[in-house]
Amino acid sequence: MSGSLQPIQPADSASGSSAEQQLVAALRRGDETAFRTVVERHHRSLVRLARTYVSDPAVAEEIAQETWLALVRGIGQFQARSSLKTWLFHVLVYQARRRMKREGRTIPFCDLEGPTVAPGCFLPPDAEWAGHWADALPDWEGTPEERLLADETLHQVEDLIAHLPERQRQVIILRDVEGLSAPETCGILEIPDRTQRLLLHRARSRVRAGLDAYVRGEDGKPA
Hints:
Elements: H1 18-28, H2 32-50, H3 57-74, H4 84-102, H5 144-162, H6 166-177, H7 182-189, H8 193-215
C-alpha cells in the first residue's frame, strides 16, 4: 500500500460547507494553488484505494493520475451532491474498473466468506462507535519505546489490511481508514448496504484475529 496507514480520520465536512464551496470555486477557475491543495490532501488516499484493485504500485499511481485529470476536465460538472473527497473516490473507482475491464480482470464476489470472531468483540448497534472493537488498543504515549510499540502495531494493522481479500479491503479502507459513512461507501462501490455490512464485518474480524495473534507472538496474517 502507498505510504503508511493513518489513524481513523473523520470524513470530509459536508459538501455544502463554506470552505469546500470556496475550494471548488477556485478549482473551477483553474486555480493551481487550489489544485495542489486537493492533491496534497487526497492523493495518498486515492493511491491506497487504487491498490485494492491493482497490485502494481506504478499502475495504482497511474489510476490516481487519471483521476486527477478527470477532476481537471470534469470539475465543472461537479454538483456538490457529495463531498469532493467522496466524488474523487467515485471517479477513481470508475477509472480502476475501466482499467480492469481493459485488462480482462473481474471483481471477485467471494469475499463475503471467511473467518469471524465473536460478536461481543464489537460495540453494539446502539453504541456511538457501533461495529468497532469493544476493547480498543491501548493509547501508548510517553517514552520512545511506547511510541515505537504503537508504530509497530499500526504497521501490523496496515499489513493485515493489505492481505485481506479485495472487496473486504476496499470496504474497510473506505470505512475505517478514510472515515466514510456506510451510504457513501455503498455509493462508491455500488453495493447494497447488506453486502457492505457483511464485508466490513469480515474485514474487521480478520484484522482483529490477526492482531490478536500478533500480540500473542504468532503469525498475524489472515488465513
